[in-house]
Amino acid sequence: MPGEGELKSTANDLLTFLAAFLGDRKASPWHILRPGFVVATAAAKKAREQRKTIEPALEPKLLTTYAGQYRVAAGPTAGKIVTIERYEEVLVLKSRSTPPQELRLHAKNEHELFITEADLQAIFQFDSQGHVTGLLFRFARTVTAAPRIESAPAKTSGMNKER
Fold it and tell me: How many structural domains does the chain have?
């Protein structure tokens, strides 16, 4: 496929990518998630392959439960806000550094979602009553917590579901 190629990355490159992805504009002089830039790591290729398989459907109530804002607790992007929004039957991830069209989240299972643009997984955390308390972002062999700070209403249009 045109534009596909290997991206040789060090652990520091991946941490820089995560910082840029979660909104730290000083982390990198380039914007790795700009449209048309292909992240071709082995993990991203695996994520694209997973997308081709049948994705489990999430219950509408669960999609609404996940929508909200989460604050990154540690690392170079500590304090940055990540928003999960619901567009009909789709969840998208937004932060200050994501492309304008957002990043669609795909379900691995009921509580783990991922994006295909990079090796990033979002794992939802719950309290004993079943309320979402936060997210764990898994990226480049690191896990970063992001406690929930507020819920967000579902949206009914504006998202291209063909991702």
Answer: 1
Residue 145 belongs to a domain: yes
Successive 10-residue mean pLDDT values, the chain, 163 residues? 47 58 48 43 67 78 94 87 92 82 90 89 94 92 91 52 43
Looking at residue 138, its pLDDT comes to 92
User: For residue 68, what is the domain's CATH number?
Assistant: 2.40.128.50
Q: Which long-range contacts (CB under 8 A, 24 or more apart) does 83-88 make?
A: 83/152, 84/122, 84/135, 84/152, 85/152, 85/154, 85/155, 85/159, 86/152, 86/154, 86/155, 87/154, 87/155, 87/156, 87/157, 87/158, 87/159, 87/161, 88/154, 88/155, 88/156, 88/157, 88/159, 88/161
* pTM of the predicted structure, to 2 decimals: 0.62
157 in a structural domain:
no
163 located within any domain:
no
- Structural domain span for residue 85: 11-151
